[in-house]
């Protein structure tokens, strides 16, 4: 059990929504525009988690050295953002247990925030389209604050917004980013094993527990 918890900070990509197919389509439409061959979904999924700029750099590094990637970066980023915005949510799906888990967390009286490295202008419409926006008092994207996960800043900002000490807040996410940010902030952390952990096993991550679904996370948490 995790006792003494008053709020949960929940990650988006790979935790609530399986967005890898959206990333796959948008990245390959960008690559097509640049005259580059498509990448498979697994390769692209391993690049997800550290924000949009990092994703584009990793995607360009498949074809170019550092100088070449720099040359193409601005065009690639603009193309990717245009294509992602056009399809945001069309190919993605909510993971099992997410709605039930969010209902259970709310039922226990926890306050909820979503902290994602996705740009906030992608995250909010995706949450709205998925019917999840209403659960969250706060949504911070990767570009909402000066630093993103694995930096603790977005988590510390939520703690301040809620007026809670970090020890009373749990972060729930699919990757080492979420765990590192939580540890650095002094929050508790639970991880789900089904998302995108940069192609690595979630079992190597410093976490307070690995739970099969958000509903299982909710069952472990007590106010
Ligand atoms: O867009 C990303 O890089 C991943 O976003 P996440 O923080 O919701 O997993
Ligand atoms: Mg994630």
TrEMBL record:
Mg(2+) binds at residues 11, 13, 174. The keyword Magnesium applies. Keywords: Calvin cycle, Carbohydrate metabolism, Hydrolase, Magnesium, Metal-binding. It catalyses: 2-phosphoglycolate + H2O = glycolate + phosphate. Pathway: Organic acid metabolism; glycolate biosynthesis; glycolate from 2-phosphoglycolate: step 1/1. It comes from the Bacteria. GO terms for cellular component: cytosol. One of its GO terms (molecular function) is phosphoglycolate phosphatase activity. SUPFAM superfamilies: HAD-like. InterPro entries: HAD-like_hydrolase_sf, HAD-like_sf, HAD-SF_hydro_IA, HAD_sf, PGP-like_dom2, PGPase_prok. Its cofactor is Mg(2+). One of its GO terms (biological process) is glycolate biosynthetic process. The active site is at 11 (nucleophile). Pfam families: Hydrolase (PF00702). Its EC number is 3.1.3.18. HAMAP family: GPH_hydrolase_bact. Specifically catalyzes the dephosphorylation of 2-phosphoglycolate. Is involved in the dissimilation of the intracellular 2-phosphoglycolate formed during the DNA repair of 3'-phosphoglycolate ends, a major class of DNA lesions induced by oxidative stress. Belongs to the HAD-like hydrolase superfamily. CbbY/CbbZ/Gph/YieH family. Homotrimer. This is Phosphoglycolate phosphatase. It comes from Noviherbaspirillum galbum.
